[in-house]
Amino acid sequence: MTRELKGGHIGLMTNDMEGTLKWYTETLGFRKTGEFVAPDGAAICFIRNGEITYELIQPPVKLPQEACSKVDHYCFESKDIEKDFEECKEKGCRFTTDGIMEAPFWEKGIRFFKIAGASGEELEFCQIL
Fold this sequence. Notes:
By secondary structure, the chain is of the alpha+beta class. Helix content is 20%, strand content 42%. It is globular.
């Protein structure tokens, strides 16, 4: 990237939204900042403590336990999702989403895309509208 990136959130998969939310709020002092249902039916809950934001994701279908014990993705904030998308495209990034996607999160929605990092980790660029 030709600019300094700013951290957005860490995506964490769970089969137990209530238990995960309870642990983060009671044990580490996180607070809920947003709750949504994704287009695929997944329950989404954003929690925050200081500068750290997690996106807790509970898919509509139960995942294997090993999928729930790892970070799903790391997100960078985007001020211009089209520009970031084009720059990643020009640099030959491997996209893990079908172009720029939209979701009805927050007041006006979001636009995002994901790429695979050098070791296969998933990285998201997200613009809150």
